Amino acid sequence: MKKITIALVMFISAMSFAQGNAELKAHYEAYYKQMKNQGDVQGVINAMTHLDILTPSQARRDTLAYLYVSEGKYVQALNTIGIEKNASASDLNVEVKAISFKNLNDIKRALEQYNVLFDRSPNPSLAYEIADLMMQNNEDAGAKAKIEYGLKNVTDDMKRAFYETQRPYETSLKAALIYLKALNLFKENQATNLDAALKLVNDALAIDPNFNMAKRTREALEAKKAQPKN
To answer: What is the pTM of this model?
Structure first.
């Protein structure tokens, strides 16, 4: 009789716990929907965090990490999904890690994740990102190969965002790749490649005259060219 009573109490407790979980889940699902309707990203993050505790899901964690990235919270994004390279991870998971590592200046890890994305679905935008990071990491030969891939496959409608000014702007991805090719060439040999690099920068500006980084680089290259030779 005592064993039956204990079992009954445990059964009732389990039922109550399940019912409580279901009510909490319904509450946070409604809260999530309301925060989404209001455009409250932090509210959406809070709702998704509670939902993931109640019913854990890798897909939800990936989305949660992406929301952190959209808010510029790169450490929180990585804390949500981890930092490991995972060949079976979703594209969103890998992209979040790539963007987060890039913004945290962990170039080696960022390159690992961008290369996973490129291996899955190569495209000119990823080629630009990888080439840019490779040049920062002094992997100039690898960067050159990615730039050439990008230029071979880029289309005129593709764009690339830049954030070095107070107001972010977009430019032609083709112009951005030509500009990056100029930097790569100049870095290879500043003495002999100055004129060729300057020509490429001008080619990029012919596509987009408002390309701010290219304009600043042209000014720097022209100033260097004007310096008296020893």
So the answer is: 0.84
Distances (CA, A) of 123 to 112, 119, 158, 177, 221: 16, 10, 11, 12, 30
Q: Which are the contacts of 179, defined by CB distance < 8 A and separation ≥ 6?
A: 200, 201, 204, 211, 213, 214, 217
Residues in the chain: 230
Asked whether residue 187 is assigned to any structural domain, the reply reads yes
Reported as a single tens digit per residue, the pLDDT across 89-143 is 999 999 999 999 999 999 999 999 999 999 999 999 999 999 999 999 999 999 9
Q: Encode pLDDT of 178-214 as tens digits.
A: 999 999 999 999 989 999 999 999 999 999 999 999 9
180: CATH: 1.25.40
The type of residue at 67 is L
**Cβ neighbours of residue 87 closer than 8 Å, sequence gap 6 or more:** 116
When divided into structural domains, the chain yields a total of 1
Q: Is residue 202 part of a domain?
A: yes
Host H or E run for residue 90: none
Would residue 153 count as lying in a domain? yes
Q: What are phi and psi of 106, to 5 degrees?
A: -95, 80
- Residue range of the domain that includes 184: 132-230
Is 193 domain-assigned?
Answer: yes
Asked if 31 and 8 count as a contact pair (C-beta separation under 8 A), the reply is no
